[in-house]
Structure formats: C-alpha cells, structure tokens
C-alpha cells in the first residue's frame, strides 16, 4: 500500500528556484536550481514561461554593449555563450566579448532570455510571476530576483530562506567545479547588480553542481 503521508511530505521538498538577473536591453540570465541544469528545450520553455524568448546573438550583443556580463555559459539561439566585458581567468578563459563555446554539445547550461517590451539599457525591477503551464516540471516555483526579492509563480511574495544553490556568482568559474578562487568580493558586495552578489556571501560554493 502507498503511504500518503510520505507522498504529502515529499511534495513540499520539490521547490524549483529560478535566479534571474537584471535585464539589459531586454536580455537577462536565468539559472535553475543553481547553474547548468537546463537542456536547450528547457531553456526555450523557461524563457517562454517568463514572457520572453530565447535571446538571439544580435540581442545579446546589444545587451553586452549596454554593460551585460556574466560568468555563465547559457543557451541563446544557435549558440552557447558567455558575455564578458572585463577579463577574468575563470570566466570564458579570460576572453572578452561574446565568448562562444566551440563544442556543439547537448549538455546542460543556463539560459539567456529576451523580453521585447524591456527597452531600457538596464532594468532591475523584480519579475513577479511566471506561467507554470508552459513548464513541464510542475514543482513549486520560486523566482529569485536581482534585487533580492523572491516571488512565487502566481505573483505572491515567497516567504522562507533562499536555498544555497545560488552560488556567489563570480566565485565559481564557468568550467570546472574546482574553480573556486575568490574574486575581490569587497567591490562586488557593494554592487546591487545580480552579478555582484547573487546570494548572501556566507553561502559556500556548491560542489555538486557540475559544469
């Protein structure tokens, strides 16, 4: 016989967290439950659920010109990329510009989405809701925003602590899980942008999420 108490209990454990960045000319970075857990199909799905589309290279170039950089490989249409402005040895192998992953791989990465209605150079207002009907995974969803606010998919404020899956973004490189050399966090800690501090500094890198 099935123990319904266990089923009920486990349903509470399945929370999916999406970390979203500020939008730069409409383009933003999304990661699911920490980095590199989306297939290309899931990346397309997720952007659609966030009222967006998977960004094109042209859209990402415009965002990059407006100041957008990350240390994360993510899907765009036709490519897997990292937008870089300042060189750093753990991010895109010290390259700047739009760094493309050369391997035509079917691996898991993050996503770069594009919202056509967001025309400003930079916008950090929180995304407050998401269309769960467009996602194949129907667990409880929490949206972690660049400003630190957290929302449930239906637009209500989420109460509860953030999971430690959102690793301090710049402290983990874009390749090996062993790339945990800290950057000068004193500068980044004071920056309100998502890439300054994705989560409280007390969170240690999660070595289980591979690259």
Automatic annotation (TrEMBL):
Subcellular location per the Swiss-Prot or TrEMBL entry: Cell membrane; Cell projection, Microvillus; Secreted
Region (Disordered) location: 146-211
GO CC terms: basolateral plasma membrane; cell surface; extracellular region; macrophage migration inhibitory factor receptor complex; microvillus
GO biological process, one term: anatomical structure morphogenesis
Keyword Disulfide bond: yes
Record's compositionally biased regions (Low complexity): 161-176, 188-202
Chain coiled-coil ranges: none
Database matches in Pfam families: Xlink (PF00193)
Keywords: Cell adhesion, Cell membrane, Cell projection, Disulfide bond, Glycoprotein, Membrane, Phosphoprotein, Proteoglycan, Receptor, Secreted, Signal, Transmembrane, Transmembrane helix
Domain Link: 26-115
GO terms for MF: cytokine receptor activity; hyaluronic acid binding
InterPro entries given in the database record: C-type_lectin-like/link_sf (IPR016186), CD44_antigen (IPR001231), CD44_antigen-like (IPR043210), CTDL_fold (IPR016187), Link_dom (IPR000538)
Keyword presence, Translocase: no
Membrane topology reported for the UniProt record: Single-pass type I membrane protein
Protein name: CD44 antigen
Organism this protein belongs to: Chauna torquata (Southern screamer)
